[in-house]
Amino acid sequence: MDGNFISHLLSASLPPGFPFWGLALLAAFLGALCVVGFVSILALVSVWLERKIAGHIQARLGPMRTGGWHGWSQTLADAIKLLTKEDVILRGADPVLFRLAPALVMGSALAMFAVLPFAPGVQFADIDLGVYFLLAVASLTTIGVIMAGWGSNNKWSLYGAMREAAQATSYEIPLALSLIPPILHFGTFSLLSATEQQSGWGGMQWYIFSDAFWVAIPSFFLFFTAALAENKRAPFDLPESESELVAGFHTEYSGLRFAFFFLEEYAAMFAASAVATAYWLGGWNFPGMTFLSTGSLWLPILGALAFLLKAMFLVCVMIWIRWTLPRLRIDQVMTLGWKYLTPLALGIMVAAAGWEAWRASL
Amino acid sequence: MGLTPSFAQAPGSEVEVAVPTQDCSINMGPQHPATHGVMRLLLKADGEVLTGAQAHLGYLHRCAEKIGENVDWTQYLPYTDRYDYLSAMNNNLGYSLAVEKLMGLEVPERAQWMRVLLAELNRIASHLFAVGTYGLDLGAFTPLFYTLREREEILDLFQEICGARLTCTFIRPGGLFNDAPEGWLEKVESFLCRFEERWKEYDALLLRNKIFIERTAGIGTLSGNDAVTWGVTGPLLRASGVDWDLRRDQPYLVYDQLDFEVPLGVGRQGEVGDCWDRTEVRMSEMLASLSMIRQCLDKMPDGAIQHPDAGPVLRPAPGRAYVGVENPRGELGHWLVSDGTKHPVRVRMRSPSFCNLSVVEHLLPGAMLGDAAAILGSIDIVVGETDR
Predict the structure, then answer these.
(1) Which one of A40, A294, B49, B50 is separated from A163 by 20 to 30 angstroms, measured CA to CA?
(2) Closest chain B residue to the Cα of A235, Cα to Cα
């Protein structure tokens, strides 16, 4: 039952004769429910944050009325609106691809949350190849987007899908390569183990502050840039670039199917920020945590808070970038990916490997 | 068509497969965020590279010229507000000057200075909108909100002086509708001070932004010769390095008493006449307008604002007149024919957006799909004016 805290909880409370497979099924079901709930709340909060931050960047207030305090329930109202909207499928659309695409996109976004270590003892599955799994699942989104663009029977959508295909496959390379320095440093693909290795009373064990900081910092920025492109966030939002492609691959989507694409964007933003947090920014570790006793209930609570704060900070930086910068052109995006980021990532990887080898030889 | 490759060939032998490809025709508009209104561009694209473009107009056609033959001279004035709805004062001015030329009126001096002031204020408002929406076309949302904030202040000033924000109908044949209320000129002065500071923000946020430069420098280059051939006017023409500004070269009102610079495109980031130059010319024109307004405020004489002969019903002498004025988007010309009655026989305008738009068919082929928005935005059309 390695690392799955739900099955731990269940096995303690269920009768002793309960079959193993039933326990596993129940745990998986409850885990999925938790993830869906968490992601939905996360997306609601992130969309509200995005609107407020965008508003304040743009010398206005953003939502202020719905729900009273600073329009906190604006996104809730929007979610209800999306749920009640008519589900339109064009006559010429490919019915199977069109329906399948949002599900695939949403499913892959949810699956990413299975391996994120939120707090000590709070992780759905600690896979040995955790980050590898995460990258693999994240690239399923691309397939979903291509299906959506192809199935929509709309040329703008098709353009968006083809851009996504080109962009996402190019940026997966620097994204994966930029993860190699922390993987080498911690010697593990598991996000949990990497986080545990960064614990300490002052936070100086975080990878970005460690003795390998001179490769950690560039690889962090590299990862962040590549993650922006991978998640179709500005200035790399070409698959859905509003002023060029209307809304790109999700032009023809409405209602809940559109909401899935929308939710996926925020889920993927958070997942990318969470990986950056777990590998570079110490995960759930926060200064002073060693003063708490290991069994303390405060540890998972404060740990989860620290993890969420760090990840949400990175999400806010993504929002900040989106509302500041113009959009690149598709050939410039490809140039940046192949001619600059990929060689840079290779260089950093070699430097990190050399440093770790030298450190190991001491 | 129907060519199937033969896979039974011996290994190593040449297999030639003619794969028939076809350019993709894409309909950009009439409902598209980058067309700034209801305009349709029919694009031909080979992948991301455009191979052809054709503009289809008429979605906003409101018979503006024909209406002119059915209303009297003064009644036509509100229609002029509505063709380039971002620069109503300049349109009013163009029409009024043409009617005054028919009537042989010389408007009082204070009215002339006020007209220049209002026209330049509206030019700033129009350019603010142009630069802001251009950022939007390139994916930068935020500059628009900043530029709209300043445009809002100008619209507030207009509201105070004439009661309307966009459709002013303020400058009219014979002078002005009203004199400026008490303290209005001081408000203009204080706005100019604020604007001067904020102008620097846009310059840093948009024009000096690396991504903005990458997206606009060397894109949609229009040579000076081509610009003249296509009948392009206004900031587009000057960005291509052609030194032509009606305010200086065919001065009307009191422009010959003002000291101002005509900014030209110099190709600082790429080539002369590219999208960056056009934006930069608009930005510099705002500063030039600012200095003109300051001079107007300094030299504003007292006196009447309406010619006593210009009453509510006008009967210009039989004849015809053409007057071109420098609008924010280029030369707005009015060609008026009168038979001496209170109704015009013909009202015809040369609208700058229409002539400038014709150049997209020349600029777009060879550019990329993402550049379509950049080039179209840099031309800065107002569909109300292309279709009239």
Answers:
(1) A40
(2) B139
Question: Higher-confidence residue: A324 or A296?
Answer: A324
B211, A57: Cβ pair inside 8 Å? no
Q: Which chain A residues have a beta carbon less than 8 Å from that of B48?
A: 159, 330-331
- For an interface test with A, give the residue of B44, B134, B138, B275 to mutate (most A CBs within 10 A): B138
Look at residue A288 and tell me whether its pLDDT is greater than 80: no
- Where does residue A92 rank: exposed (0-12), middle (13-18), buried (19+ CB within 10 A)? exposed
Listing DSSP states for B341-386 in one string gives SSSEEEEEEE-HHHHHHTTHHHHSTTSBHHHHHHHHHHH---HHHH
Alpha helices (H) along A72-129: 74-84, 95-112
Compute the average pLDDT of residues B168-193: 88
Q: Residue B141: closest CA among chain A residues belongs to which residue?
A: A323
Of the candidates A358, A325, A217, A186, which has an alpha carbon nearest to the alpha carbon of residue B212?
A: A325
What pLDDT was estimated at residue A3?
A: 45
**Domain ranges within chain B, ordered by starting residue:** 6-52, 62-386
Task: Give CA separation, B182 vs A165, B31, B60, B195, B300, in Å.
Answer: 63, 44, 39, 22, 14
- Note whether B137 contacts A: Cβ–Cβ < 8 A: yes
Instruction: Say if the Cβ atoms of B138 and A326 lie within 8 Å.
Output: yes
B62-386: which CATH topology? Cytochrome-c3 Hydrogenase; chain B (1.10.645)
What are the chain B neighbours of A331 within 8 Å (beta carbons)? 48, 368
Is a pLDDT exceeding 70 seen at residue A4? Answer: no
CB-closest option in A60, A155, A332 to B214: A332
Per-residue confidence at A362, pLDDT binned at 50, 70, 90? confident
Structure token digits, residue A339: 């001619």
| H or E element in which residue B46 lies | strand B40-46
Which among B26, B33, B212 is the nearest to A326, CB-wise? B212
Res. B1: pLDDT tops 70: no
ipTM value of the model? 0.80
**Whole-model pTM?**
0.84
CB contact under 8 A, A244 and B145: no
Q: Which residues of B touch A237 (CB under 8 A)?
A: 139
